[in-house]
Amino acid sequence: GFAETFGLDSAPRRIEVYDNSHIMGTNAVGGMIVAGMEGFAKNQYRKFNIRSTDITPGDDYGMMREVMQRRFSRLLKENGLPDDSAGAAEADDAGHRADMPAWPDVILIDGGQGQLAAASLILDELGITDRVTAIGVAKGADRDAGRERFFMAGRNSFTLPPRDPVLYFVQRLRDEAHRFAIGAHRARRKKELV
Fold first, then answer.
1. What is the DSSP secondary-structure string of 33-74?
2. What is the pLDDT of residues 86-143, one digit of tens each?
3. What is the DSSP pairing of strand 149-151 with strand 106-110?
4. Distances, alpha carbon 1 to alpha carbons 17, 83, 87, in Å
5. Segments in the chain below pLDDT 70
């Protein structure tokens, strides 16, 4: 399954998927959706209104850096580093947190090598590269679903067989992230028009 495909030790309990939406660069919004093996955790979704003034319209890498910076500095501040041994015990005491930890095991980034590099740069700066597995998902030729190419640090990029259930799962995650980011973007644009 997922863990084997992406070389993880165990099935991820929390996956975060990031997508950026902008139309001609205005009102740029970053979207983050969250899923576990049980499905989507909609109460954990976040949107990031891109604030940085030095990002030029359409600078997807700049947007990705801002979203990652804000997301993970905040996570560090609020939850500290994910410590495997202590974390498990705390989650059990809290009861409901056991199934959905605060820290993602995996982050999926919509985009290829460049987007992955932009995200990895921030994870590196924050010293959490080894805590989170980052995977870039690039659309196939002609944005062809089924030909997605995966990018991970230290591995050659790869594709999956067309009917692979992991590929299907990733496509669903990416579609949901895309839907959410576009919805967040529309809401932000509408507010500006009003």
1. EEEETTEE-GGG-EEEE---TTSPTT-HHHHHHHHHHHHHHH
2. 444 344 444 444 568 999 999 999 999 999 999 999 999 999 999 999 999 998 766 6
3. unpaired
4. 18, 25, 25
5. 23-25, 83-99, 141-145, 194
